[in-house]
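can u do me a favor
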């Protein structure tokens, strides 16, 4: 098969490319903004996948694809403009949506028929935004109305891997980097008490590979998430125990029992109110029926442990400490960074002002975060 991965250099895309390349008869093409050396049956194409001309040039050079797996994040109007192009150059268009589109499933496992936030929310301010779960749901609707009828909509939930280790809404840069620097892990007590579902990225990629070219997957919407749930407090304890054994020192933890305070520091309320404060359990029956067997997901406690230990052997963070969240977290937990922790006095001054004034709260009120 000839398969195009749009924006396929992220964690999930790398797993998928590796799985697909194991079949020597497959030819995998991956778009990237960076120069990456092609190898084996994987060809990297440098360019901006948001550009229609770039996509058309790929089609003219390589012809029609058997499948396109689209990892890109589009604005709704952009997607509406280019959906005909994307669906016309492939036999199967696999669109990465998100299980964040779902409204609160109460205490029942979520199925593909669980109502979406876009359809049932009465929060007019929220609905007026292009927040991620609303954007994805609107783009799903565009595909449902498309005349090509060759789509597969995929709804993964929270995925993890060696370089993607989340704690609630916090990426590793906002909790693990602090812990390794000797600062307090700042987290929300309210989120910690909720149930979630984390799925190993390689498991998600494996299932996607089984949907490619699968006649049962055409014109279907399927969620891909482990059928085993876990409490965020258990995940925090797991991280704490691993770090204590690895570093010899147990990390300090501050659980804020005021969700509004935590939102002030995190600076975004909708991902919290309309996802992380929900209990998220998932039903895997539909995707199992499509792939033809009950998929055995890697247990999250085992997978997170393995990934965290692997990351600690070669830690790489995408951004330095000292931003808005760190200033707020240090203020709440009683930590302080020093001038030596920053590349310049100017950077330290920005942190110092936020750490020692109510600047975070002023900004939050200005942008209606709380």
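np, heres the sequence
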């Amino acid at each position: 098969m000839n398969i195009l991965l749009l924006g396929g250099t992220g964690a999930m895309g790398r797993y998928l490319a590796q799985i697909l390349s194991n079949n020597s008869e497959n030819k995998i093409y991956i778009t990237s903004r960076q120069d990456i050396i092609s190898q084996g049956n994987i060809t990297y194409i440098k360019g901006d996948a948001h550009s229609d001309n770039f996509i058309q040039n790929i089609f003219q050079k390589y012809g029609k694809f058997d499948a396109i797996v689209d990892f890109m994040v589009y604005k709704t109007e952009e997607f509406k403009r280019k959906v005909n192009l994307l669906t016309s150059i492939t036999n199967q268009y696999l669109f990465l949506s998100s299980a964040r589109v779902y409204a609160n499933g109460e205490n029942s496992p979520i199925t593909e028929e669980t109502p979406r936030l876009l359809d049932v929310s009465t929060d007019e301010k929220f609905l007026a935004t292009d927040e991620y779960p609303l954007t994805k749901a609107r783009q799903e609707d565009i595909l449902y109305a498309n005349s090509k009828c060759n789509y597969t909509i995929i709804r993964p939930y929270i995925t993890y891997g060696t370089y993607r280790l989340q704690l609630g809404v916090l990426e590793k840069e906002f909790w693990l980097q602090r812990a390794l620097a000797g600062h307090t892990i700042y987290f929300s007590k309210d989120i910690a008490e909720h149930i979630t579902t984390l799925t190993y990225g390689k498991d998600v990629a494996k299932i996607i590979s089984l949907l490619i070219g699968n006649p049962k997957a055409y014109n279907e919407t399927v969620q891909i998430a482990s059928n085993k749930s876990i409490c965020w407090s258990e995940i925090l304890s797991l991280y704490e125990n691993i770090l204590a054994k690895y570093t010899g020192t147990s990390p300090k933890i501050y659980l804020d029992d005021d969700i509004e305070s935590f939102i002030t520091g995190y600076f975004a309320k909708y991902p919290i109110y309309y996802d992380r404060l929900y209990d998220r359990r998932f039903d895997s029956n539909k995707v199992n029926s499509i792939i033809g067997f009950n998929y055995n997901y890697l247990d999250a406690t085992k997978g997170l442990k393995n990934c965290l230990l692997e990351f600690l052997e070669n830690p790489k963070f995408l951004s330095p400490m000292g931003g808005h969240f760190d200033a707020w977290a240090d203020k709440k937990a009683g930590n302080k960074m020093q001038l030596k922790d920053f590349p310049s006095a100017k950077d330290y001054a920005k942190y110092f002002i936020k750490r020692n004034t109510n600047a975070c709260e002023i900004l939050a009120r200005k942008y209606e975060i709380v």
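Residues 80 and 142 are 7 Å apart (CA to CA). hope that helps!!
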